[in-house]
Input
Amino acid sequence: MRRDYETGEADNVKIFTGIEVEHTPAFGQKTLFVVGIHNPIDLAQKAREEDCTHIYLGANQSFNPDMKNSDHIEDWHDMISVLLEEGWLVTLDYDVMYHQLVIDNLHESTLPMSSIFRNFIPQISVKIPHIEELNYNACIKIDDVDYNHSNPGVWVHQVNELMQRSKFTDWKQYTKDKPIKEVD
Output
């Protein structure tokens, strides 16, 4: 993904640091942002070297598991598990289309669920281009895959209520991130 950094525009950055600017439980924390799959032990070491308290996986929309390659999916699972086992606060940014895959992998984890719930931030990305062109009545529905399948019901939010200024992160805030040399 081509984007701006403190050092200028680039599309080949794999690891970078910055302050978490999105309004998640890690907001304001020094963060190691990770694009793609890396050795989790090396990531933890790099996060310590950079004085980070949070590791953000799937940065730059890089969580794109090869559904036909179980090894690739397992690499993501291992990376998350090792970092959580070490006690890191870990975000995984993933497209809503991968939600069931992420949930399934969490249930297969050998980690205690208390550790997962305490330190894991699932960042479910729902892409809605041109959102400001919608009218005042537009709604977003958090649904289930079928009637009465796994959720107790549905939640409907008016788009204009979700777009509060206190939850907004301007693109300019992402330009302060600093690329760092990849781990070996």
User: Anything to note?
Assistant: The helical segments are 40-49, 70-85, 99-108, 113-119, 159-162. Residues 3-130+170-179 form one domain. The two ends are 22 Å apart (CA to CA). Residues 45 and 148 are 45 Å apart (CA to CA).
